């Protein structure tokens, strides 16, 4: 199984399936394609006509988009969603909400694992997005959103890194701590710090 | 079981689970809320009763809210396995999930320049480079699915699935803005517009009288 990802420092969408597979102990070959370089687009299109990372290739099956990959993995590894069906529906709701929403947070607090931008990016719309995420996290059953690690945590993992970079305070700090203490999360951050490439357009605040 | 929706004329996200459940013959009670006209449609009147995300659609099942169209479709697929809402074939199912997820988080240029509008038509409006690229990608998806998986019927994966419910609002957009379609996508678009559930939704939309400014960038006058 191959997982095609972008830069670990910037690609929030790539982090989601990557961390889910690491935490569940699903073996895969990582194919990292640094984004916005000559030839990167062509390389990605070689895997999927959608032209975006992440992409999972399992034999002849190609799955693109972070949420579709998580649902695919959950078919074989049902523990990726909560076992209680009402909780599972809720986990899917907040995951889908993350998947299509929080546009202002994404725009003004883009993921940048190795930088520190305390206080930056806090427009009124971003603060509203943060308040909504804070409310979702406040209901965490602990240590993760639904007790044990699920796909919902994978979907919010990039937000944890954003809040770390922009030093956003949340009520449920124990949730951020639990996510940041995952060996897989530490591995991702360390790799992001070692990456040589930088994307000036995404280093929003210097 | 209830499905809470917004204005049928405008709410593309509401159309998906509604069409899915109707077409599959899953019984539900429709609860319609309306976009707030005072703020131009940025909020939904009465949505606070149902969940805290503040958006339509919402599925209320066993008394619990499930929100966001994709989460609702997955939940319905899980609760009604006999309806086979995702393609049974493993490969087809993963492609179906991928294109729905791509639709769910993407095509932002087309969405903003061609908001869904069933009652009114604006041929030629809304086209720009980003929207053209979005449309080309969607046409490529439809063509590839029809050719590779569509043998057993007129839908993307032959028989009706979540993917068709997911792209039904796009069919409405292409219709409203007069987007020209090559033969395969044209036939698919016609088939979607021929679905009983889609016709019923369109009739509902045409009967609505509300005018929501944020969804009407090309209206020449307020009604």
Short overview:
The complex is a heterodimer of chains A (206) and B (223). Chain A has 206 residues and is α+β, with helices and mostly antiparallel strands.
What would you say this structure looks like, in words?
The complex is a heterodimer of chains A (206) and B (223). Chain A has 206 residues and is of the alpha+beta class. Helix content of chain A is 51%, strand content 8%. Chain A has helices at 12-24, 40-47, 66-76, 85-100, 103-108, 124-138, 151-165, 173-181, 183-194, and strands spanning 2-5, 29-32, 55-58, 61-64. Chain B is an alpha+beta fold and 223 residues long. Chain B folds into 2 domains: 2-83, Glutaredoxin; 90-201, Glutathione S-transferase Yfyf (Class Pi), Chain A, domain 2. Helices cover 47% and strands 7% of the residues of chain B. Chain B has 8 helices and 4 strands, in the order E-H-E-E-E-H-H-H-H-H-H-H. Chain B has helices spanning 12-24, 69-79, 90-105, 108-113, 129-149, 162-176, 183-193, 196-206; strands spanning 2-5, 29-32, 58-61, 64-67. Chain B has a 4-stranded mixed beta sheet, with helices on one face. In chain B, helix 1 crosses helix 8 and helix 3 (90-105) crosses helix 6 (162-176). The radius of gyration of chain B is 17 Å and the shape is globular. The termini of chain B are far apart. The interface between A and B is medium-sized, with 28 and 30 residues.
